[in-house]
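Reminder to self: keep the SMILES exactly as supplied, no canonicalising. Ligand is zinc ion.
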Amino acid sequence: MRLLVAWIAVGVVVALVALLDRAGVLPARYVLAPLLGLLILAIGRASLRSFRSGAAHIPDGPPRPLDLAQERVTYACGGCGAEVLLLVRGTEVGPRHCGERMTERREVPRGSVR
Ligand SMILES: [Zn+2]
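Structure tokens returned for the bound complex:
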């Protein structure tokens, strides 16, 4: 919905600029050049933001060993079916296998809940 409103606003601005340019009041390049600059700036900032979120696999602290008596975390690969048991957690982001993010499954061992 928000994207639709943005596209409608862009359409209105372009139509207004075309009208002003056609009437000879304001050349279109004086309005479109700064808008193009803002678009390039927004694309650049979005690219840098995606780099930051792409680095979520980098640990932000020391690894934490899991207590297997309280919690058992496994990761399964949807591509090949491989399954791994997590012994030490480095980050909150799960590992990848076959080029895809593995599916996390948490199990509570019998007898650990009172
Ligand atoms: Zn796999």
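Points to follow up:
Residues 77, 79-80, 82, 97-98 surround zinc ion (CB under 6 Å).
The chain has two domains: 2-54, 64-107.
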